[in-house]
Amino acid sequence: MSKQKNDYSFWTKYKRYAGNEIMLYVIMIVGIILGIIIFS
Fold it and tell me: Where are the membrane-spanning stretches (predicted)?
């Protein structure tokens, strides 16, 4: 039972972290594309 609870808390933390990572990558990719458009 305690193991399952730990898994649940781990997954909720991981989901929040993954969401932040995705946002970071999206912003980075958009920045790179804008940079290419401006410099070309």
Answer: 21-39
